[in-house]
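Researcher: I've been going back and forth with a colleague about how LLM class flavin-dependent oxidoreductase might be arranged in three dimensions. Neither of us has a model we trust, so I'd like an independent prediction. The organism is Ureibacillus aquaedulcis, in case that matters for your notes. Sequence below.
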Amino acid sequence: MKLSILDQSPISSDQTASDALNESLNLAKACDQFGYTRYWIAEHHDLPGLACSAPEVMLSLIGANTKQIRIGCGAVLLPHYKPYKVAEIYNMLSTLFPNRIDLGIGRSPGGSAEATNALSDNFLQKVFKMSDLVDELLHFLKNDFSNEHQFSKITAAPVPENPPIPWMLGTSEKSALLAAQNGLPYAFGLFMSDLDAVSIIDKYRKTFNSNQFSPAPKVLLTVPVVCADTTEKAEEIAWSPLVWQIMQDRGEGQTVPSIQEAKSYELTDQEKEQLKKLKQKMIIGTPYEVKNSLANLQSIYNVDEFMILTITHSPIDRIQSYKLMAEEILSN
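Model: Here is an independent structure prediction for LLM class flavin-dependent oxidoreductase. You can compare it with whatever you and your colleague have in mind.
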């Protein structure tokens, strides 16, 4: 079983955005040593409590301070951008950090309607043209001059010896089919979807294989996890990100609350039920309990890699959570 990291660069109530970004760097450095396969940082725009709006900037810093872990964006929100510029950025990163760059591709806005309008024109129209945008991006990444593409004479320089590996990210059949039709590996955000992930992933594999792409179809699942020495401690730590989601739904929660702040936050009966449902989507427990839960998901979805999203108020708790998982799963 392979483990990777999805980092949303959360800002805790006792942090600045600068603190949060520095903790993202610390997390990547630690997980590089722990043996994680890849580290992806997410792109968000004007969302309270999330610090990273420009993953490519952070990836330059992280790449320079790590040695072997693959690094990438989860995901570049492609409808906001011209594919040529995205290819230039990630070719540049691949030139600086050979054979270590992933390029996750997504279609969501990553922020409010106002932020979307400030970022790009005609976002929804570009979402409808997502297939064309992906085709154009892959053309530039392949640096293929043999076809009749409208940009066949343009190079997304610098051209790295080992190009970035593109992934499709999503939570629906539409994204799964787009990945399969382009021969791309697929990252499914299990924690963000209430759809039938088993059938979606199965359709991805069947469509991929019907097109006879090589190498074989590849799927990873993104799941939220909090791991600690004891179940009780993990439950206590997890209370913070769980309550934070409720706070955000109220239009509150500008930052991740401390455990004490979360415990003292008054919830309505409806919110208590909502919190129970949110908790069911998380894996919370000791290293042994987390390993068993992931093994169960592995048997259900037939995947060999999990991308772990861990949000805690304390950076120490977050790194410790990843460390405990690595010691239990990656060291055995």
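Researcher: What would you highlight for our discussion?
Model: I'd start with this: Residues 211 and 218 are 14 Å apart (CA to CA). After that, consider the following. The domain at 2-227+283-330 is CATH 3.20.20.30 (TIM Barrel).
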